[in-house]
Amino acid sequence: MLVEVAVAAAVRGRFTYRVPSALAPGVSLGQRVAVPFGKSRRATGYVVGFPASAPDGIELRDVVEVLDPFPPFTPELVELLRWAEEYYLVPPGELLRAALPPGLNARRGEAGPARRGVEYAAPAEAAAGAAADPKALARAPAQRAVLEYLLARGRIPVEELRAAFPKGRPAVAALARRGLVRLETETPVARGALLPASAAAPVLTPAQAAALVELDAAAGTFQPFLLHGVTGSGKTEVYLQAIARARGAGKGALVLVPEIALTPQLAGRFRARFGDDVALMHSGLSDAERHAEWLRLRRGDARICVGVRSAIFAPVQDLAIIVVDEEHDPSFKQEDGPPYHARDLAVVRAKREDAVLVLGSATPSLETLENARAGRYRKLELPARVDDRPLPEVELVDLGRLRRGGVAKLPGLLAPQLSEAIARTLEASQQVILFLNRRGYETLVVCEVCGAEAQCTECAVSLTHHARRGILLCHYCGRTERMDARCPACGGVRYGVGVGTEQVEAAVRELFPAARVARLDRDVVTSADDTAAVLARFARRELDVLVGTQMVTKGHDFPGVTLVGVVLADTALALPDFRAAERTFQLLTQVAGRAGRGAEGGRVVVQTFNPRTPAIALAARHDYAAFAAGELDRRRTVGYPPFTRMMAARVEGSEDGARRSAEALAHAARPALGGEVAMLGPAPAAIERIRGRHRWHLLFRADGPKALFRVHAALARVAVRPPGGAAIRFDMDPYSMM
Fold it and tell me: Going along 170-307, which residue ranges are E strands?
């Protein structure tokens, strides 16, 4: 037997090996094997084909060992990964390795820990009386918080409690010993069956019901849908009921979400509806937990996967429906490592497995919208919120006019209109979200004498002042230095300019000393558990004001939030990126959608220096159609996606090596352009240096991918041994222009 093997290393090409007769029964497509590679190296490889004959003139070597009792990859996943590696210009084996849970490549396949089934927690009969008695749990605040949450939620999976109280397991156990909480375990059921639901499905709105009818009619075939629903319109319930239909037919489902912070919330809803049939795949889990979840999917013990970007490769059996929630989110594009786009791979996977695809968003990406307009996707609309709740009113505050009117200093950049709105909201015992997409206290520190900026020595960026820690921090490489009031160059006094979330938090605490304030950004939360803990406190209304970066914009449902303040709407507009306006509109719409999701109405205050810019003015009017029409016209005029395709060549190295390599790429590309491909560059990247490595970019644009593949073939010869030893990385359909 001969096998074609992709080696788990950054090497191009696939390699043919012989399989000894003793190992042949254990070898099939997708199998993980150990093979000799190079002079004395042993490498992990993946069986991706069975050639009929050996290449001429090559002495074949033998497979050394079969590493797993069954193939980690199904034949369908092998074909998907082969397609992805070719399309995204990734060496064979890199994506195969990235598609497996961490740690599996370092060990033999193993059974993994067994699961007991689904464990539920529910309040016992005495719980309400204990919660009402101020003395009952006076010395156990953690237990009281868990008990109040359970009384509000009823019987729920323990996974949801774990998301709300990452360190609350001892409190749950203590409550169970007191007889205030019941813990129940249901053992796994037979394959294809469903556990009894602990959360009954609500009655659908007419728009939701119409969408579900369309999804039902497409079952068993490849059909991509764009589910365009305003914030709060109930897209998740459509997903849940469509998946319930698929599971009733014994089929599997895959749900992709953009952020780890969203996964515990969605997981709670899915586990409440489907029990132990749900497996989670995200980096917030330990390696052992991810491996166990992956094994449950591979064996068919779980048939629904909820996960982030990398879950597109999850081994879901009998896949019938794929959901990509918030499909517009840029985090679906992998920037570090193999540069694939999970949303686009979802289209390919659904087509190859005859599955229904649902791309859901309140602000669809322009690529997805154009596919719907061209008839490649079917568009389903949810035009109103559940229960006909109104969308929040949006007020624009012109910061430029305030400055021209003599208001020179705004503490934390909070204008009087926003400060007054916060005061009224707090007086009404409602909650506030304040959004600013900049971390730190001040974004730039400058000497008032010589004008020198505090800059990172390793990256071509300014250092951000983090006042609480008393440091200057680079947000790209993590380098820190002590914040000194005196300029190291001339001894002059330094001052800070620009506002970050830390300064906004400090201003809110000063203006409203009685308010309970927390911040949600990468400086204060470093794990999924930290994020879930902050969000759970906000959900339990233990906090009045939540200040944060775009982590606060993503899919959260807090009925107590009646005011959302956008501290500065312009942060992304000036970026050298043709998607800057689109991302600004999407962020503003998403964060505005957090307001008014409960019985009370909602209000949004947006502060900006550019109130007439379409991305801001139309977001304030909730007018996605007008924004998309104008932005698509602009893209069509200048020749940018979705009307063209792009490929980036990214070069990193020494100052001289990066420049020479970029120039060599440009020289190699010119004969291959052929009048069909436009080349932009070579030029230094927008951020010229990161972690001490200089960066150059080339951008290629064409009507379709074939011409770009031709250019890549010419560039690949240079990339094998680039001048100056620079690293060259290709990125098909790039999302970041930085």
Answer: 181-186, 223-229, 252-256, 278-281, 304-307
